[in-house]
Write a structure and sequence with these properties.
This protein is of the alpha+beta class. It has 4 domains: 62 residues, no CATH class; 189 residues, Rossmann fold; 130 residues, 2-Layer Sandwich (Beta-Lactamase); 103 residues, Beta-Lactamase, CATH 3.30.450. The chain is 46% helix and 22% strand. The strands form 4 sheets. The protein has a 7-stranded mixed sheet with strand order 6-2-1-7-8-10-9. It has a 5-stranded antiparallel sheet with strand order 12-11-15-14-13, sandwiched between helices. It has a 5-stranded antiparallel sheet with strand order 17-16-20-19-18.
């Protein structure tokens, strides 16, 4: 099945340049591409794809249009003030006085937000502490923007958002531009990183990704957030843009201040930690109380439980297990392998061996089981080794009925999915609006630049108007000279036409595209076509008595410079239908510095026939 035009274009960009835009919001992406196509006068995706194939410089303009690099120093000042006054001090108190601090600015564009973060940390730590402890990584997919960030030089307009004390302390002013200080610049590393495809930077304390996620669709956002969650330390902070709220990703990040879009990572406890807690509870329970109490409590336990000794023989089965699996007290003392319980609902033998070998609990989740009464249940099985001084003396197997929990989770998941869909639609609308605002801001900046250029152009036009008065007088003199040269050129053209006619043979001149430029009178007499009928036409497309296809190879050799002369005799029909033999000589047309700019074909009948096809007398 053929691809949609826009899909074919995106696939071509991914194959040839390594840019994968399939995760971007389609409406915004198509709008940006259409804008670039409109700028160069193309209204069809396939035609634009052909344009990219023959004009490789167009890729840079297209990427600059798609990747909206609207950024600035201390953008959204209220959020940065909160970050500096509340978040940074809290983080520094958490990590300690000497620990290194790692910062990742994802989607950093031309580096303004990266250096903003550097200034805030330098203020909090002092310049000496900042140089010793801080490492900042700025990443983006736009190589041109990264190049600007590495130079760390900005115009007066670009640094308008920097507070004056910071501007004087952290920037050097020269040639109407401001450069971030070189000693502090060494702590910042810029590199290309695609949030969708590339591995994240790890062990990060502060991660900023502002107004970047809103350009991606919901699926890609979820994938990126998973990478950011992996990158961030448990005590770290995530700083997003004002249109990114993460309400549907509460399992990964929890808000510290939702208004200012500051989040902290939701720590994920390991499965090992959960199982060790279960094992500890079993050991404590076994050590407390009298044997009768322990046995009664074990038998009355709500969860089905089976206890095995070190030889995997059954030493205890509580009432819930007997009712659930149809076993009896008489099965106590039998090897586990002799019971149906050893393989239904799950393979317990391999789980018991694994628990003994690794000396840790083994969790088997969501094991489906049909009871003897025919009802369908879902069980969670925990196999825990009973250890004494590091030696396994037995095993406890606990079967937890999670059927109702599973049903509630399904209902919750359905409701959550519906809520996420509704929120994502709302967030998508907000992000679309934000994207449009970004585009409008970019357009406004372009218009301001254009206005300045127009003012400059107006001044130039006034100067040019004065020059035009003097130029007009010169043009009148030149016009008189041109009249004289036109008369001379007409005489030369008439002289050239006389020469071509006087040669007595048919002469045809073609350019490098084999388009006819000269067709003399003998050619018209020989083939029956006037000059005005053929000039501008492709030689090989003429319908005359000469087999023009036989001229293709000689023309190619002469036009490429591989041969200086070619002669061949061709059978043809004159304009009156008479068969004649024509000698065709092909010569290169060399003009100026020796380059071949076309070919000259001399056509001369050999069998005595004249130009009109009658016998010469």
């Amino acid at each position: 099945m053929a691809q949609e035009p826009v899909e074919a274009l995106l696939d071509y960009l991914k194959r040839t340049r390594g840019f994968d835009f399939t995760g971007y919001k389609r409406s915004s992406l198509e709008r940006r591409i259409s804008r670039r196509m409109s700028d160069i006068g193309i209204d069809d995706y396939r035609a634009y794809l052909d344009h990219l194939e023959v004009q490789p410089d167009e890729f840079a303009f297209l990427f600059n249009t798609i990747l909206i690099n609207v950024t600035g120093f201390f953008r959204d000042p209220a959020s940065w003030d909160y970050f500096a006054s509340d978040i940074v001090p809290t983080l520094l108190a958490t990590v300690g006085e000497e620990a290194p601090i790692r910062v990742w600015c994802a989607g950093c564009a031309s580096g303004e937000e990266t250096y903003t973060m550097a200034m805030l940390l330098a203020e909090s730590l002092g310049e000496e502490g900042y140089l010793e402890r801080v490492k900042i990584y700025g990443t983006d997919v736009d190589d041109e923007a990264l190049s600007q960030a590495r130079h760390a030089t900005y115009t007066a307009k670009q640094v308008e958002g920097v507070p004056k004390p910071y501007l004087e302390r952290y920037f050097e002013h020269f040639d109407h531009r401001y450069a971030f200080r070189k000693d502090l610049r060494r702590t910042v590393i810029f590199g290309r990183n695609d949030l969708v495809q590339d591995a994240p930077i790890s062990r990060i304390d502060i991660l900023t990704c502002r107004n970047t996620l809103m350009y991606f669709n919901a699926e890609t956002q979820a994938r990126i957030l998973g990478r950011l969650h992996f990158a961030l330390n448990d005590w770290g902070y995530l700083f997003l843009g004002k249109s990114e709220m993460l309400i549907t990703h509460s399992d990964l990040f929890s808000p510290v201040d939702l208004k200012r879009r500051v989040f902290t990572k939701v720590a994920k406890p390991t499965l090992r930690d959960r199982l060790m807690v279960v094992a500890q509870d079993v050991r404590l329970e076994a050590a407390e109380g009298s044997a009768l109490v322990r046995e009664t409590a074990f038998d009355a336990g709500p969860a089905a439980q089976v206890v095995l000794d070190s030889d995997s023989k059954v030493v205890g089965i509580n009432r819930s297990a007997r009712e659930l699996f149809g076993v009896a007290r008489t099965d106590i003392g039998r090897p586990l392998k002799d019971l149906e319980l050893s393989y239904r609902p799950v393979d317990l033998r391999s789980a018991v061996e694994q628990a003994h070998d690794e000396k840790r609990g083994v969790l088997i989740q969501e094991a489906p089981f049909r009871t003897p009464s025919g009802s369908q249940r879902h069980l969670e099985v925990i196999v825990t080794p009973l250890l004494t001084d590091g030696i396994a003396v037995g095993t406890t197997v606990v079967f937890s009925d999670v059927t109702s929990q599973r049903a509630l989770e399904d209902e919750l998941q359905t409701s959550k999915h519906e809520l996420e869909n509704a929120y994502e639609e709302l967030q998508s609308t907000v992000e679309e609006l934000e994207t449009t605002n970004e585009e409008l801001q970019s357009t406004n900046e372009e218009l301001e630049t254009t206005n300045e250029e127009l003012q400059s152009t107006n001044e130039e036009l006034e100067t040019m108007n004065e020059e035009l008065h003097s130029t007009n007088e010169e043009l009148e003199t030149i016009n008189d000279e041109l009249r004289e040269r036109t008369l001379e050129l007409n005489e030369v053209n008439a002289f050239l036409e006389t020469i071509l006619t006087s040669m007595g043979i048919a002469v045809v001149v073609v350019d490098r595209n084999q388009t006819i430029r000269v067709w003399n009178a003998h050619s018209a007499n020989l083939w029956g076509l006037r000059a005005d009928e053929v000039e501008g036409q492709h030689l090989l497309g003429l319908d005359i008595g000469l087999p023009v296809e036989d001229l293709k190879a000689p023309l190619r050799r002469v036009l490429s410079g591989r041969q200086q002369r070619d002669e061949q005799v061709l059978s043809a029909l004159s304009r009156v239908g008479r068969e004649i033999q024509v000698r065709v000589t092909t010569l290169p047309l060399i003009v100026g510095g020796g380059d071949v700019s076309g070919a000259i074909l001399l056509m001369e009948p050999r069998d005595g026939a004249g130009a009109d096809g009658a016998d010469a007398t």
